[in-house]
């Protein structure tokens, strides 16, 4: 059931999130807190984070009956994520067309990896393109997200058999920009430094195909076959469709004795504690446009090891990146043999976390509202 949170009977901003979970939920909550502190009136309309594909196809229809009583004045602003087909919603609620409309892209479907070999369903990509055309401003959470979206528009348009629209990329590019995800970094608690004996590896991603958990666990198996000593914390949120590899690893695998934690951690304090007690955070993602969990892990003291692709080169120094499985295994073996080296390399790592902090970005988001 859709959830509607009212802040005053007359509001200035309506925030619509059809997939209210994970980083999408975190963003909405952080943005709403920013509006609250600024004294801006707002209204939040959400749907639970279930069945992403159905949300991407049907959320405008699902939300229509839930927001019949919601009014938005011409000076108001409609803010939504790209999961919503904005063009459809405006067709159902033409009165929303008079206000300013901003869409935020956490990810884009134009380069999404396909799980099964089949003819690509381009409807999700077309929905995102029409959403951009229906909006006044398009925000992406990274330059990689923005560029990969724009560069693949023509490829999608060419799949249309005839009467292809022209200048779509140019129109969208002119009203697009990058606004990094506002990360609420935790307050760091001073700890007594002790020399690590066993390397603690953390995998902090949501349990989905595009994060390539199979690759991660295969790398861990290679480390064990090489008689490396290490421990693993598998964190991250779970949604409807969980890859089978997680149950296989937990119940029947040679890695069972290596897990110090396996599963979602509800408490943020407990989650950050696990990150602070870990030495290396690993990503094997096929699909990443920002990566809140890896930034949080790095902020909490983990050395990040990430593929040399996707958004990662935009955020992390080259020394954190690997080009293939062999290179990742080589780096991890070196840290297993000397965990202190991982600690030292993390201490020497330079990342400007302020660029991504909610506190630093709050004023920039408010400026957008007043444009």
UniProtKB/TrEMBL annotation:
Residues 12-183 form the tRNA-queuosine alpha-mannosyltransferase N-terminal domain. Its EC number is 2.4.1.110. It catalyses: queuosine(34) in tRNA(Asp) + GDP-alpha-D-mannose = O-4''-alpha-D-mannosylqueuosine(34) in tRNA(Asp) + GDP + H(+). Keywords: Glycosyltransferase, Transferase. It holds the Pfam family Glycos_transf_1. Signal peptide: none annotated. SUPFAM superfamilies: UDP-Glycosyltransferase/glycogen phosphorylase. InterPro entries: Glyco_trans_1, GT-like_domain_containing_1, QTMAN_N. Residues 202-315 form the Glycosyl transferase family domain. GO terms for molecular function: tRNA-queuosine(34) beta-mannosyltransferase activity. Belongs to the glycosyltransferase group 1 family. Glycosyltransferase 4 subfamily. This is tRNA-queuosine alpha-mannosyltransferase. It comes from Acanthoscelides obtectus.
């Amino acid at each position: 059931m859709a959830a509607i949170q009212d802040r005053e009977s007359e509001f200035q901003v309506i925030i619509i999130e059809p997939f209210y979970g994970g980083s999408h939920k975190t963003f909405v909550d952080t943005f709403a807190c920013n509006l609250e502190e600024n004294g801006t009136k707002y209204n939040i309309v959400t749907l639970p984070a279930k069945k992403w594909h159905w949300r991407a196809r049907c959320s405008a229809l699902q939300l229509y009956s839930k927001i019949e009583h919601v009014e938005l004045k011409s000076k108001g602003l409609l803010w939504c994520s790209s999961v919503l087909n904005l063009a459809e919603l405006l067709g159902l609620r033409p009165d929303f067309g008079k206000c300013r409309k901003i869409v935020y892209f956490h990810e884009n479907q134009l380069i999404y990896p396909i799980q099964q070999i089949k003819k690509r369903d381009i409807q999700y990509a077309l929905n995102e393109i029409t959403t951009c055309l229906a909006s006044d401003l398009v925000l992406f959470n990274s330059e990689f997200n923005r560029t990969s979206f724009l560069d693949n528009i023509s490829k999608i348009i060419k799949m249309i058999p005839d009467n292809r629209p022209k200048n779509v990329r140019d129109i969208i590019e002119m009203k697009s920009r990058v606004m990094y995800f506002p990360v609420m970094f935790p307050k760091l608690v001073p700890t007594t430094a002790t020399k690590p004996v066993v390397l603690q590896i953390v995998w902090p991603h949501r349990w989905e195909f595009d994060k390539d958990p199979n690759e991660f666990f295969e790398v861990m198996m290679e480390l064990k076959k090489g008689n490396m000593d290490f421990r693993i914390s598998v964190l991250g949120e779970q949604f409807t469709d969980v890859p089978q590899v997680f149950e296989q690893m937990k119940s029947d695998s040679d890695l069972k004795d290596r897990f110090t934690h396996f599963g979602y951690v509800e408490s943020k304090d407990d989650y950050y504690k696990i990150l602070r007690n870990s030495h290396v955070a690993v990503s094997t993602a096929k699909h990443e446009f920002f990566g809140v969990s890896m930034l949080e892990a790095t902020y909490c003291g983990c050395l990040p090891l990430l593929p040399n692709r996707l958004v990662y080169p935009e955020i992390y120094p080259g020394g954190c990146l690997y080009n293939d499985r062999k290179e990742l295994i080589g780096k991890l073996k070196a840290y297993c043999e000397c965990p202190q080296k991982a600690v030292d390399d993390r201490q020497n790592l330079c990342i400007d976390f302020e660029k991504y902090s909610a506190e630093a970005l709050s004023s920039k988001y408010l400026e957008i509202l007043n444009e």
